[in-house]
Specification:
heterodimer, A: 199 residues, mainly alpha, 9 helices, 0% strand, B: mainly alpha, two-stranded antiparallel sheet, globular
Chain lengths: 199, 208
């Protein structure tokens, strides 16, 4: 296989791994706060999930470029936390303004979730993992997208289960976050089944 | 935010540790630390870092509260927190590279931990530095308490050790190690049970 072809293949594998075997929520626990608080309804969960996929794909790519071409040549690697946070905040703000200007309808559906995303640890986490695992640029895009889709998948499944849960009798102290965590644990167990699918 | 009446220090301590414990009151800020609770030592290092960063950031935010414009205060707070997190990260890298590798990206993720931001926003922004420091310190300690308890349960049941030392019954052949406890699902189950326990005790407290 030629260079670019094999790299695309690698990116695809990274993407699937990020969705199933290394799901950012169920194996590394990132993005737990919105996961427990915004998973009551399927519709809002889907909106937030879509926003996460979008922002994560672009911010990991932007952060990769900034890290590789600005911080590394200047030997300022330790500065990456601040740079990543600023890039994420600026990107979210920018997207919010663009959507507001050109598509008020999309803004109504997605807009309220965008500010929440700046403080979503999964977004920053994805960028930090990207640095630690030393991905190439194409792999980074695959990883950012895959991690976002994995998160979307997990929160959608959780919201679906939680709407059913309203009718069941959960012990008093376990209601709310407690039972959500137990379900998340079961989902994590199920996702362990994917281990070994990708090598 | 209206200025709160000055609370006695004793109340700040009790609030942080038990009454308003950030974890089982709001289930906030578990993201950055839950992942390392499979080993007690990692958890202790992580929690110490987090507690220090919370306390010092709260104090700094409070010191700068009269000079911070309201509309950009979130950004200022984030930068203050990021500044201290970088210091912690560099110290760990320099003096304990092995631990720095174990913790991986999670030290950096302290920045997005909702507890620090929450304490800065809710308390430090409208109170003098000394109470802010105490408030941050004990919120951090309350958080650490639960996470260290989780890590003790997970390491003991999963590997039969605590802090790497073999425990009498659990590391012998009599105990079939629960491997699931050191894997991700174990963290979810342990935390859920912990919240269940704390909430039930609270309910009883409220009734009596």
């Amino acid at each position: 296989m030629n260079g670019i072809g094999s790299e695309m293949w690698l990116a695809l594998v990274t993407c699937f791994a990020a969705i199933f075997t290394q799901n950012i929520l169920l194996t590394t626990f990132l993005g737990m706060c919105p996961f427990t608080s915004v998973s009551r309804e399927v519709k809002t969960a889907a909106g937030l999930g879509a926003a996460v996929v979008f922002v994560m794909t672009f911010t990991t790519a932007l952060n990769y470029l900034a890290y590789k071409h600005v911080l590394l040549p200047l030997e300022l690697e330790f500065f990456r936390f601040i740079l990543f946070i600023i890039i994420i905040a600026a990107f979210v703000q920018f997207v919010e303004m663009v959507i507001d200007r050109y598509s008020p309808k999309l803004y109504q559906n997605l807009g309220i979730f965008l500010p929440l995303i700046t403080v979503n640890c999964a977004i920053l986490g994805a960028s930090l993992f990207m640095v630690i695992r030393e991905y190439t640029f194409i792999q980074t895009i695959g990883y950012g997208f895959g991690a976002g889709v994995g998160w979307l998948l997990a929160i959608l499944a959780m919201a679906g289960i939680r709407t059913r849960l309203n009718e069941s009798r959960v012990p008093e102290g376990l209601r709310g976050p407690g039972i959500t965590l137990i379900i998340a644990g079961m989902m994590a167990l199920a996702f362990i089944g994917f281990t070994g699918v990708l090598s | 935010m209206s200025p709160q009446p000055a609370k006695p220090m004793k109340d700040l301590v009790a609030d942080g540790l038990w009454r308003d414990n950030p974890i089982f009151r709001q289930v906030l800020g578990i993201c950055s630390t839950l992942a390392v609770t499979n080993v007690v030592l990692n958890t202790v290092v992580m929690c110490t870092s987090l507690t220090l960063v919370t306390a010092i950031s709260c104090m700094t935010v409070s010191l700068l509260r009269h000079w911070t414009p309201r509309n950009i205060r979130m950004m200022v707070q984030t930068l203050i927190i990021a500044f201290y997190v970088i210091i912690v990260d560099l110290i760990l890298k320099a003096y304990w590279p092995e631990m720095s590798r174990n913790l991986g990206p999670y030290v950096g993720l302290i920045i997005t931990n909702c507890i620090i931001m929450g304490r800065c926003e809710a308390f430090a922004g409208s109170n003098p530095p000394a109470p802010s420091f105490v408030d941050g310190l004990f919120s951090g300690l309350g958080y650490s308490l639960i996470l260290v308890a989780i890590s003790v349960v997970r390491e003991l049941l999963g590997m039969g050790t605590i802090l790497g030392f073999a425990m009498p019954y659990f590391s012998s052949d009599l105990w079939d190690k629960w491997v699931i406890m050191v894997m991700p699902p174990g963290a979810f189950f342990t935390l859920a049970c912990m919240i269940w326990l704390c909430r039930s005790i609270k309910k009883k407290e409220a009734k009596s």
